[in-house]
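Fold this sequence, please.
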Amino acid sequence: MEYGRRKPISLLELCIRTTMDNLRYVDNVDGVEMDLLQRILPHCKMEDLTRIENNTEMDLTPVTDKLWKLFYTRQFGEENANQVVKRMSMSGARYKWKDLFDAKTKKQKEYEEKMGQRLAKKYEAAKAGKKHFLAGCLQISGKNESCYSKEYYSKDISAHKDELKSCTANEDNDYS
């Protein structure tokens, strides 16, 4: 072999590289040998791997289980993944990492929804308290004026000092 000349790549290697570059278009890998899948599938994104597994009839667990463990570790942390491994070894149970990933993701979404609902309730309670404060805070000269209105600030603030003190004192008593 002359200096500077490379050996051409095999047709098989060319097909593997092309498949790796176009994984977003792969739906089904039925009939593909496991040793080829072990070279190709590690290049999948999570969405690609999910799609391929859902559309393939043969069991890909021998190849994809390691990949799902990696996705689990990236998503939920090394400590959490180690804890799962420890629990599985203690109980003697064996689960697919894809199932563990799906269960943990579902649990996390439920927790996020629950926290969102709590936050919405707190926001509504604070909003109701603010409306109560604005509605009952100041009654100046027979007019219902908010301490946030232009009319309020255009008047002399010292004239309303006592009213403000009594208003905030009443509000403090309402929340204690």
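Confidence is low (pLDDT under 50) at residues 138-142, 170-176. Residues 1-58 form one domain.
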